[in-house]
Amino acid sequence: MLLKKYLVKALFAALLVTLTPLSAPGANPDVVFKAMEKEMKRNMKGLHMEDYKRPYFMAYRLTEVDVLSLEARYGALVQNYRNTYRVIYTEVRVGDYKFDNTGDNAYRLGARIGENIDYYAPVEDDPKALMHKLWLMSDIRYKEAINQYMKKKGQNIFRPREDLIDFTHEKKVVYMGSPVSLNLDSQRAVELVKKVSAVFKEYPEIINSSVSFDARAVNKYFINSEGTRILQGSTSYYIRIDARTKAEDGMPVQNFHTFFFTSPEDIPPEDEIIQAAHDVAEQLIKLKKAKEMEPYSGPAILTAEVAGVFFHEVLGHRLEGERQRSEMEGKTFSKKLGEKIAPGFIDIIDDPTLESFQGTKLAGHYLYDDEGVPAQKVALVKNGVLKNYLTSRTPPKGYKHSNGHGRAADIQKPMARMGNLIVKSHKEMPYEELKKKLLELLREKNKPFGFILKKARGGETNTSRFGFQAFKGKPVLVYKVYAKDGREELVRGVEIVGTPLITINKIVATGNDYGVFNGYCGAESGYIPVSTVAPSILVSEIELQKTAARKKRPPILKPPL
């Protein structure tokens, strides 16, 4: 889901009080790195089974997380979770850079053999305890690597192998950032979520609601056998307001609002957050009373938020490098470099080096990816023509280097993923003009009405060749627009569906109202923070289907509030 971030300059001073971590994350990075380096050197030299190859490459990634997670409902706290933990990802490769134990589906974790692995590392900087954990995990990964390598060699007896490089050569990198930590008073945050959640006591029409606050400080320690050594940290803070109810016919409906920020200085004033809760409630009550929509095909406007989800699902995932080499994938764009895949006025880049866009912080920002490669700006589409893919160190055919997009969650294997996906148009117009053009299209097509989709709660797509090459968007606020006078009417029960190659080329114009959307994206390498920047788009044809929602009777009695 891509979540909108509202940037404000006001200071919510009540939360700017130091919060002491449960254990001191990053208290002594030198101790951590020395333990990791010493154990890696020992394993690179000593890990060997007779008649089998030694490792040619190893990597350790220790991720240290300090988290505060709060949730309140109707003025009362229902969750107060505080924890600090460390987890370790270990990678062992057998063979060589050209041919090793990884496969075309190298980004998948695959079956594990031997002992069950406990990924948790000591949160105290005890070198012996840390080295013991690294020793055990390296041993298991080495045995797995040998097993995978032999299986892969056996498979090649029956199956021709493409001219692919299994692992790219990259330069050694040394970067030592400063460890980060949370900097707020947890009790003040508790009082905030309780106060905001109490707003929903005023709305008996709403069945359930919650306000959550999630704060995370993440420090990543990375080393590999090539000499790379990186420490980088990041902080993120989310406030999410969520409300749900049922229409008279039993259809579930929901609305939400999310604030994202990277520093306590960006936390909005309390009255702004409270007003957002009122807005969520009032929009939901209108949605509850709205008419259920029937399936539709025709012109529509996707405002910036929905357009961001659209580009993320339709194009972003299909331009990830591993998907161009795996025989399990549909490879929608794998042989289309240099070909037109989108309207000529569209450019698309992914630039994780950008910290903000027009003053708004970007969740997809990072300096080095999870394979130790510097983040890079990648021009994916220029004037509608496909120019490049996002790559990790497991490259598509013809690529010899990563462009710094190998990303993963805590214990997952990295694969090429989006960072900050930015869509730029050369055919912009004010939103009012975009709506006029929508009405003109409706009249040309003899359509009595079209749609404007104004908010989405996420999307999904299928890139496998064994499934349908399709995507789905899940809009929350959808408005029926009448061709005669432009009047807008809220409706419910609608989802966007379509196929990527057709739908992307139905874009006929865009607005000049660029929006920034921050959230988490889930794929084979786990859930990672991402951002999308996009303008509103006008499509000449889009398909909307009825929401797959099971209708149930609303509560019999009125709420006790």
User: What is the strand tally?
Assistant: 27
Instruction: Please indicate the count of domains.
Output: 2
Q: Provide the CATH architecture of the largest domain.
A: 2-Layer Sandwich
The overall pLDDT average reads: 89
Low-confidence stretches: 1-18, 105-111
Helix run count: 7
* CATH C-level class of the largest domain: Alpha Beta
* Sheet with the most strands, sense and barrel status: 7 strands, mixed
Fraction of residues in helices? 10-25%
The radius of gyration over CA amounts to 25 Å
Q: In the CATH scheme, what's the topology name of the largest domain?
A: PmbA/TldD fold
Quaternary structure = single chain
Question: Which word captures the global form?
Answer: globular
Cα distance spanning the termini? 32 Å
Question: Strand pairing plus helix content: what structural class?
Answer: alpha+beta
**CATH homologous superfamily (4th level) name of the largest domain:** PmbA/TldD superfamily
- Strand arrangement in the largest pleated sheet: 1-25-26-18-11-14-15
How is this structure best described in words?
- It is globular, with a radius of gyration of 25 Å.
- The strands form five sheets. Strands 1-25-26-18-11-14-15 form a seven-stranded mixed beta sheet. Strands 2, 3, 4, 5, 6, 7 and 8 form a seven-stranded mixed beta sheet that branches.
- The longest helix is centred in the first third of the chain and has 32 residues, at 127-158.
- It has helices spanning 29-46, 127-158, 186-197, 270-289, 304-316, 431-444, 500-503, and strands spanning 2-4, 55-73, 76-94, 120-121, 174-176, 208-224, 229-246, 252-261, 291-292, 296-302, 346-350, 356-357, 360-361, 378-382, 385-386, 406-407, 415-416, 420-425, 428-429, 449-462, 470-482, 488-492, 494-498, 507-511, 515-523, 526-534, 537-546.
- Helix 1 packs across helix 2 and helix 3 packs parallel to helix 4.
- The chain folds into two domains: 7-289, 2-Layer Sandwich (PmbA/TldD fold); 292-546, no CATH class.
- With 561 residues, the protein is of the alpha+beta class.
- The protein has seven helices and 27 strands.
